[in-house]
Each structure stands twice: as C-alpha cells, then as structure tokens.
Amino acid sequence: MTLTLNKITSQRGISVGEATKKISDLGWNPSYVQEASTFPTDYKITKAPRDPMKQVLRSYFPMQEEKDNRVYGALDAALRGDMFRNVQPRWVEWMKLFLAIIPFPEISAARSMAMIARLAPGEDLRTGFTMQMVDEFRHSTIQMNLKKWYMENYIDPAGFDITEEAFGKCYATTIGRQFGEGFITGDVMTSACMYLTVVAETAFTNTLFVAMPSEAARNGDYALPTVFLSVQSDESRHIGNGHSMLMAALKEPENHLLLERDLRYAFWQNHAIVDAAIGTLIEYGTTNRDKDKESYAEMWHRWIFEDYYRTYMLPLEKYGVKVHHDDVQEAWNRITKKNYVHKIAQFFAVGWPVNFWRIEAQTEKDFEWFEHKYPGWYAEFGDFWKWYSKLSKPGETVVTFNEDTGYVYPHRCWSSLVPCVVREDIVVDQIDGQWHTFAHELDRWTAVSAFSDEYEGRPTPAMGKFSGKREWESVYDGWDLADAIKDLNFVREDGETLVAQPHLRFDNKDMWKLEHVRGHTLRSPLNMLRAMSDTDRDAHIAKYREGFTINPCN
Amino acid sequence: MVATSSSVGSGAAGAATFVGSTSRRYNYFEPRGKRATHYEDVTVDVQPDPERYLIQNWIIEFEGGKGGGAYTKDSTAALSSNWHAFRAPDQEWERTHYQRQSKIESMVQSVITNARRAGAPRSFDKNWQMILQKHLGAWKHAEFGLGTSLMQAQRYGYSQMINNATLTNSSYKMRLAQDITLYLAEIGMDLEGWDDELGKKCWLEDPIWQPTREAIETIMGCEDYLEQYFAINIVFEPLVGELIRSGFFMQAAAANNDFITPPVISAAEADYERNLANTVDLIYLLANDEQYGDHNRKLFKGWLAKHRDLADKAAIALQPIWSQPHSKPVSFEDVKAVSHERISQIVTELGLS
C-alpha cells in the first residue's frame, strides 16, 4: 500500500452538477421593476432551456487561459522556425479577405448573446450564454491579433494594414457583412439562435474553422490552424446553447412554422455565403494539389451532408418541424454540378482591381487537380484562368473590362449579396414596386416571403428587413474604375500603386497603378435592369440565363 | 516546403522591397497616443458603422419595434460628436482578460482549499457564519443582477470600445457572483446546519435587502445602456458595492476569525477600480463633448439623482448588518462617510457635482 499526497490532502468538494445548479439559482423574478424590454421576437418561449455543458466560470477561465498559452506559444514558435520564409503567398493573400471579414461576425455573436439570453426563461442557460459572450470576444480579438501578426511578418502587408476599413467598403466583404449583421438584426430567435448557433455554428464552422486550417497547414501556415482550431474548440459549447434553445422553442407547436422558415433561410444563406467564401479560399488559395486530399465538395459532403443534415437536421422532423430535404440536395447540386465555388472564384478574380488582396492565376498544375476532382472543369474554366494570367501584366486591358475574354459581369443577389453566378438559376421579382435580382428561387423566397411582416398568413412584425445599398455596384455606378479605387482607399502609400494585384510578383515594375485601370466606367447591373422596358428586361434575363462562353485564349 | 508561389521564393517580411512592403501598422484609425496600443489594434473599428466605412449603410434593419440598423445612436439619450473617441484605460483584450480572470480564480480556489484543509471555517465566529449565509448569500444576487445588466448593455453601444469595456465588466461581475456562490457552498460542507438557501431568501424577503434589490432591479429595467453602465459604476458601486464589500465583509471578517472571505471578495475591488476607470473616461468624454457637453451633463445629473436616491436608501437599509457580528471593528457611519467621499470625488472629477 502506498501513501500519496493526494490521499493526505484530498477534501470533499462540490460536484459539477451541484455547482451548476446553485449558479443557475442566482437569478430571480424582479418585482420592483421589470427587466428592460429587449429586441423583438415572434416566437413564444415558455420552457426554460437546459444547460447541457454544465461548466462554471471557475473552470472556464483557467481552461481558456491555457488554450491561449498554447496559441501564443505556437505563434512564437512559428516565428522562431521562420515560418514565413516557407509560407505560400497565394494562401496568405486570401487571409487578407478572410480575416477582414471574420472578427465582425464573431463580435456580433457576442452582442447577440445579450439578445438571446434575455429571451430564455430561467437562468440555467444564462451561464452558457455568458461564456459564449466572452468566447466571442476572445475570437474577435484573437483573430485581429493574428491578422496583425501576418501584417508584421508577411512579405506584403498591404491590405492587412487597411483591414477594417476595407471590410466596410469592399465588393467582396459585403457578403461577410450579410453574415455578421444576420446574427444581430431582426427577430432574436431567427438571428441569434437559428441563423447563428443552429446553422452557422453547428454546421458551417466545420468548414470555416476545421477544413480551412487543414489547407493552411498544407501551405506552410501553422498559425491559422493554431488559432482557429482553438476557436473551434469553443464552438461545441455554442452548439449546445443553440440546441438547447431550439429544444425549448420546439415545445411550442405555434413555433414550428417559424422554425421551418428559419431553418430554411439560415441553411440556404449559410450555404450561399460560407461555401462561396470558404470554398474559394480552400480550392483556389492553395498550392497543394495532392489528389488524395479531399476537395471542398468532398469535405462538404462529410461535414454538412453526413454530419449536419443526417444527424442534426433530419431528427428535427420527429419533433414536428418540416425539413426541406430538397434544399440540402440543391446546395449539394450547386457545389458539385453547377460549379458554384468555381464560378465564385472566377468572380473574385474578375473583380480584382476593387479588392485588397492579390489573386494569382491558376496554373497547369492546378488545372490537372481541378479536372481530377471536378471532371469537366478544364473545359469551362481553363481558358478563363489562361486569360487571367495573360492579363495580369500592367498595361493589358484589365480583365474586369476586357471583352476579349467573353466574361459577363454578374448580377448581385439581393438576398445573400453573393453574385448570381449560376446564371440559369437567376430569378427577378419586385419588392415595393422595384425590381430585384436573386441568385436562386430560395433567395427570392428569403427576401420576399421570409423577411416580411407576415409569413403564411401569420403576422411576423419582429422579422428584419433587407435595407441599404445592398448591391455594392450601385455605390460606384457611373464612376471611373480608378476613381472608385482611390475612393475605396485601396491604393498603396505612393498614392498610385494598387493594393490588389493579379499576381504574386513582388517587384515594382510588375505592379498595377491607377493609370493602368483608368478609363473604365463601373456600372450597376441592377440599375441598368431597372431602367429597362418590360420586354428588354425579359430578353436580358433570358440571355443571362443562357450564360456566357469564355473565348479561347491563345 | 518552399514558397513556390512567391516570385522571390519566400513569403517573409523583407524578402523583397516594393511599394507598400513596409506598411506594417493598421492605418485606418487615429491612436490615442503616439503609437497604437495592442488593445487599440485588436479593438478599434471591428464594429463599423455608416460613418466609419460602411459605404452601403446597414444592410439589414429591425422592422418591428426597435427600427434602424444593427447599431443605432439612439440606444442612449447621451449624445456624442464622436462615439469612437473612447479608449478603455484598462486596455483589455482577450488575452489580458483571461490571464486576469484565470489568476483570480486560481487565487480564490487556492485560498478556499487551503483554508478548508486547515479547518478554518469551523473557527469562524458563530454569528459570522450566519452573516455569511444570509448577507453574503444575498449579496451574490446583487452582483449577478449587475452582471446581467451589463451583459444586456454590451449589445447597444455605438463603438466596439464601449461595448467591449461593458462586456468585460459583465464578465467580472458574473465571475464574482459565481465565486461567492461556490465559496459559500464549499465552506457550507464543513459547517453543520449550514443553509445555502438563506441568502436568496434574504435577497427576496428580508427588509434589509429590499431597497438594494429595488436599486438593482431599477438598473436592470433601464432601457438606456449607458444609464445602466453609469448607474452601476458611478453610483451604485461606490455607495453600495464598495460599502458592503470593503466596508463590511473585508474589514469585519478577520475580527470574526474569518481570513477566507476577504481574499474572495478582494478581487472584486480591483475589478471595480478598472471598471470605474473605464466608465469615468467615457463619461468624462461625453460630459466634455464640445457639441453635446451641456446636454450630457444635464442628462448625467438626472441619472445621478435618480440612482443615488435609490443607492442611498439601499445603503441605509443595510446598516443593521454592521451591528450583527460579535466583533465590530468598523462602524457603518465611518464606512458610509468613506463611500460618500468616494462618490463625491468621482462626480467632482466628472464635473457633475
């Protein structure tokens, strides 16, 4: 028999279950003054949700500090190991876009905890929401720190240096704004629970924070996986919070119609936004063309289709919520048969002068991999990337306005703000007497039916409303391209050289300047559509649905 | 691995020189000092608005009830010519927040564990044991009420700096409420007849606590996020929070054989110093706003009067607690005078006296 220190010093402690029970008893029903009214919802929540994680702040803070220590230790080690000497610029350039977007959705999620915590009766889950609030504060500032670290150590800091300004202005980050504002605006259950936790965090953080870091590592970037896998380790708690609120909402049959609506809207829009951005980053930001690795489509099938749809969405049917299986199938079709991600990558490349990162042309090695993973890819996209490469030299007519390529600039979806790149699926409809364009019938349904003050005969006054200059192109309608870039402040310190470049040549002689893009006028496709007669509009949309053909590039 | 996609075979800073290759600072905001602090770099402008960079304006609006975009200036009656000028003096971002909170939790747990191992709770004065059950047990609910109010408030501010300072303030309050809860539960395991429910009963029913509960519920009921932040840190904390934490539990404990409660509570006093500094800085900016200073000072004086009245009543109702321990090393009148001195310094500093 041995005597251990533990045996001498051990004492009876409080169990985790007991601790969480006592903490959930901290709240009370106010009797002097009622709590302030908060953001509205059309849902009815009467059942107190349970906290599945049963964690208290006493263990939470040391755990998070330990996770931080590992993250910051790894960043130091990466510098000592000279990571940036070997990192692929093709990859890091896309981080200028990704990391410009993501801190805002993260901190929005922190703000949304205030909204959802007040909606839930009882105090059991409030501890969970409190920890999520602090988690999201963690994510936002740890990501800003990572971006600063890239800026300080990567070969070309331009684009990182204007990051938050760029986020508010860019034609591409507008997609991320729809994502982040979607967490905090409109019906609380729709935004903070269904859109944020039940769909974005439960389904799509797997592609955002797990699949993407794997690709980063393949490109010599060990920092992104370090930070984002640490971020993802918090998500399981958030998924628990969302599921618990969802279960509380399910208890009321009158919520079922709204749950069906919101699950549908949230799934489709998360697909439209996250797959557009992350699909492009993973497939086009990499230099690794190992044919044995999973493509984005294959990862999507694993994470979204098998994991989320089959094990999370489908079981909701037994609680009485209609699940739209066809939507999931359609998203899968868009990725695998309609080349959604590839067309988005093409759009990002065409718009390079008005973004704030470099996009390098895809090469023969890339072509081979794409054709292997997506048979037929080369026939549709090969010539485009050859054109892009050819037109990457300053002095060439910028690809955005070069009619030799055959590319036709797309309409913007009023709902997801992602362009209508699957041309045959474009839909137009009127809202308040004005024409709008949508990437898909489900996007039209989202804007016209879901974001409305009435849903299937039921008043839904709390639902949000799409607003603002949602079509980015309308902001600069009629501007000269060079003037727009200057106004965006996407110009380097000499006042002439563009932040964005269509190549990875780090030499002044290869850099595009304002003078190289002057003389082209930006147009709003939506304004042009609205100015058309009914006949012209019908003809225009019919032609748009036929698509375009890229001319051979010799 | 080689950086094959780089024209110079490397992705490292300095591998090539070209326009923009040395632009290694965030350049879209004016730092408070000569150079941006780390806190500013990771905080400023993460929450944009149509005046700062959102060229498309807000793209979703609240249709029912509230109206407007994701953030609106009218979530408070205060006005500002520049909501983005504020920088939190505590410079808190995630890393410093977790380091500080984690250290506090380690310290608190270590104190409780070692004290229990030494059998310390059993040597507490009997009366003191009852005081902890009833009054420290009641106080944890007050801290929780402040924490939830701040959690609510952090949704509404018009800049990232305001909201993050409010968020960390909420996090500190929530931690303290939980620390007290678990502390009482743990020492209760060593003491016969301990009733862990007594605190909440007092909070809800004991006349001593009802004015405090009213003051807290009034803060919880404020529709104006800045009024909540102001009422908590400028008014309630000096007049009631510090009064009972420092002025009673920390000073009276040792004289009643309790050396555990003071360190458990002490972290809250340090938390408050930071949160007070943040609040004073923000309120000072608004009270001295060139355009709206007069309006704001008038508004703040109204908040001060409203919440001070409630806090004064709360403090007076708490007075009997000072008479309850066997050993009474400090008088209520003395600590009340200290708390009045404290708030007087704060409001004078702010030009609200």
From TrEMBL, chain A:
What Pfam families does the record point to?
Phenol_Hydrox (PF02332)
Report the domain of life of the source organism: Bacteria
Its keywords, alphabetically, are:
Monooxygenase, Oxidoreductase
Q: Which InterPro entries match?
A: Ferritin-like_SF, Phenol_Hydrox, RNR-like
Q: Which GO terms describe its molecular function?
A: monooxygenase activity
Keyword Oxidoreductase recorded = yes
UniProt entry tagged with the keyword Cell inner membrane:
no
Name the UniProt record assigns to this protein: Methane monooxygenase
**Originating species:** Celeribacter baekdonensis B30
TrEMBL record, chain B:
Cited CDD domains = AAMH_B (cd01058)
Q: Which residues form a coiled coil?
A: none
Pfam family membership, one = Phenol_Hydrox
- Gene Ontology MF: a single term: oxidoreductase activity, acting on paired donors, with incorporation or reduction of molecular oxygen, NAD(P)H as one donor, and incorporation of one atom of oxygen
Locate the transmembrane regions by residue number: none
Q: Signal peptide span per the entry?
A: none
- Entry keywords, A to Z: Monooxygenase, Oxidoreductase
Keyword Cytoplasm on entry? no
Q: Which InterPro entries match?
A: Ferritin-like_SF, MP_mOase_hydro, Phenol_Hydrox, RNR-like
Output this protein's name: Putative propane monooxygenase hydroxylase small subunit
Annotated organism of origin:
Celeribacter baekdonensis B30
